[in-house]
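Quick one, tokens below:
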């Protein structure tokens, strides 16, 4: 009876989350292939204009890495109708904010304006697509900006090489093997014509999605979208190469010395399927079981109870083509990396051999309900999610239905997916250590 009441309660909770958070939208295509998504929400007098391009680090050449991230910066330099250095002044002068970000799979630009400046936001994004000025002074300026970012985020940041080192060892064929920020040597060597060709190939209407979200009149927005984006010519469709990795069948062992740390870190990583798969969602749940919060299995046991580690974590680094499931720990003296890894493995074996409890499953579902609500709690979050679900997942309505998929995951699936992907012969073990003191040798 108690179990039935719990299940009924969970069903009501899911129904409440789904109905309260349902995101209404309209989508259509312009003749030039630009996909448009409109989400009207008059609850606050703001509007987001955003464009996501299907270009990321994986679309670069091995000897010219870092281009997609470079363009995240470069396309703020100016256009034929926006003078160099004026982009941010126009935005802030009209009460707005803007930003951009890049991953291995896509690049995203957005502005948030007061509702009465929707036309301005649309014009600026159309300008970025149609009339970017890509010249040597802009390339040189942004080259220095990117170099400084690399120094801060990677070269001089403690554990800043964690993800790059994992990627380097996990992928031998796929472009996921290099970092999004890329190689400074490649950017230095690139000629202006190469940047211009990259722009012409990827930053085109038929490789992008435009999202307008917030307080606006739909028919007026459609008129402006046609006015500013409809005139942009459709370009040559992009032919994408499929890269496949051979299965990992024995443990990969690697060591990396980081001059910015004093404490070693043990890292283990497993190659997993695309974020579009159901298996990837199950792995998301496994991450929560292992390390989401102080009551999670690994944190409670390894950090709190046994005091073997200062920090412990697990996360599913999901991407369009493959994912990488990463676990890490900072051993606390006198315990070693081997001690911590043994404890991590013990928790994984438990997941592979024992079903989690109904109570733990309910806790998981509550956590994912909370994440779902938070991800759609701002108009900026909704805009980003709408663009992502269209461009990378091929289904905009996942913004409303993906939570149902998480709720349908069973205890048996969690056990089976852990057994399928998280095995010692399918992983990388990386010893991430301080630089050795050579004076002691």
């Amino acid at each position: 009876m108690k179990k039935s009441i719990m299940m009924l309660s969970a069903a009501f909770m899911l129904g409440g989350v789904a109905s309260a958070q349902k995101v209404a939208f309209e989508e259509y295509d312009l003749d030039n292939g630009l996909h448009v998504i409109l989400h009207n929400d008059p609850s606050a007098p703001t509007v987001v204009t955003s464009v996501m391009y299907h270009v990321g680090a994986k679309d670069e050449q091995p000897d010219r890495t870092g281009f997609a991230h470079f363009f995240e910066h470069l396309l703020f330099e100016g256009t034929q109708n926006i003078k160099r250095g004026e982009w941010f002044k126009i935005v802030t002068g009209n009460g707005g904010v803007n930003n951009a970000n890049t991953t291995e799979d896509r690049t995203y630009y957005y502005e948030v304006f007061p509702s009465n400046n929707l036309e301005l936001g649309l014009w600026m994004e159309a300008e970025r697509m149609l009339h970017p000025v890509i010249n040597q002074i802009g390339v040189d300026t942004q080259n220095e900006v990117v170099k400084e970012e690399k120094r801060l985020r990677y070269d001089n940041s403690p554990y800043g090489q964690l993800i790059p080192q994992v990627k380097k060892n996990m992928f031998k064929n796929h472009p996921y093997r290099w970092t999004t920020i890329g190689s400074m040597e490649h950017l230095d060597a690139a000629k202006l014509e190469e940047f211009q060709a990259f722009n012409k190939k990827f930053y085109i209407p038929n490789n992008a999605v435009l999202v307008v979200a917030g307080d606006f009149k739909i028919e007026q927005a459609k008129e402006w979208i046609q006015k500013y984006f409809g005139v942009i010519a459709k370009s040559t469709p992009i032919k994408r190469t499929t890269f496949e990795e051979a299965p990992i069948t024995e443990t990969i062992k690697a060591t990396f010395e980081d001059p910015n740390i004093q404490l070693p870190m043990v890292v283990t990583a497993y190659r997993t399927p695309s974020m579009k798969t159901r298996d990837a969602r199950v792995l998301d749940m496994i991450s929560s079981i292992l390390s989401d919060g102080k009551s999670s299995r690994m944190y409670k046991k390894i950090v709190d109870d046994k005091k073997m580690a200062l920090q412990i974590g697990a996360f599913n680094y999901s991407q369009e083509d493959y994912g990488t499931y990463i676990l890490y720990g900072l051993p606390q003296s006198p315990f070693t990396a081997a001690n911590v890894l043994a404890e991590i493995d013990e928790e994984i074996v438990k997941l592979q051999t024992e079903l989690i409890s109904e109570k733990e499953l309910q806790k998981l579902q509550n956590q994912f309900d909370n994440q779902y609500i938070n991800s759609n709690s701002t108009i900026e979050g909704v805009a980003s999610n709408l663009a992502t679900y269209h461009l990378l997942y091929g289904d905009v309505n996942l913004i409303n239905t993906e939570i149902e998929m998480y709720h349908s995951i069973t205890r048996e699936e969690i056990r089976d997916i852990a057994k399928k992907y998280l095995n010692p012969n399918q992983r990388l073990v990386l010893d991430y250590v301080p630089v050795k003191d050579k004076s002691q040798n």
